[in-house]
Design a protein that fits this description.
Oligomer: single chain
Radius of gyration: 30 Å
Strand order of the largest sheet: 3-1-7
């Protein structure tokens, strides 16, 4: 009799899966923005497999960055099966908007005495500074003779560490 040996090649390819991390937005408050929400946007997991996400993206200052993450796929018993998947991560955006504030300078007047007068006061008319921030207002210009003039000012916002954070505000 004749013995016939058949050789078959079996190929198992990675399963395609696309995971999207969520977007998030807030107005600047000095605190870090992150978002741990995600969804499977294409593909699916094999039975008894779960996604483990380790989020690495964050945004503190005004601006936008990607909501990045490391993705692992494991069995419900904890065995790493990530190698069985072709994972595409679509990162969302983390956006911190500038904090709006409006500042009004104070008017000042005095009777002529030969010395100059310079504006010195201000008040915030809209919005507020973050809790550990303060305004530094340096007025330019003064009035010596009888009359009226306008003055300008350099306005900076400084945090409790002495760092200029003016760019975090829409003044």
């Amino acid at each position: 009799y004749l013995t016939l040996i058949l050789t078959n090649v079996i190929v198992l390819t990675q399963a395609d899966i696309e995971i999207k991390t969520a977007d998030a937005y807030k107005v600047y408050d000095g605190q870090t923005l992150s978002n741990n929400d995600w969804s499977i946007s294409k593909g699916f997991l094999a039975q008894n497999h779960v996604v483990e996400m380790i989020f690495t993206g964050s945004q503190t200052d005004a601006g936008t960055s990607k909501n990045t993450a490391e993705v692992k796929i494991k069995t419900v018993n904890g065995k790493d099966v990530t190698k069985n998947y072709n994972i595409t991560l679509i990162p969302g955006n983390l956006t911190v908007g500038k904090k709006p504030i409006s500042i009004q300078s104070s008017s000042d007047e005095k009777e002529y005495d030969g010395t100059s007068i310079t504006a010195s006061g201000y008040k915030i008319t809209e919005g507020e500074l973050a809790s550990d921030h303060s305004l530094v207002v340096n007025y330019k210009g003064s009035q010596v003779d009888v009359g009226t003039s306008t003055c300008s000012a350099d306005i900076n916002v400084i945090n409790s560490k002495g760092i200029n954070v003016t760019d975090e505000y829409a003044i």
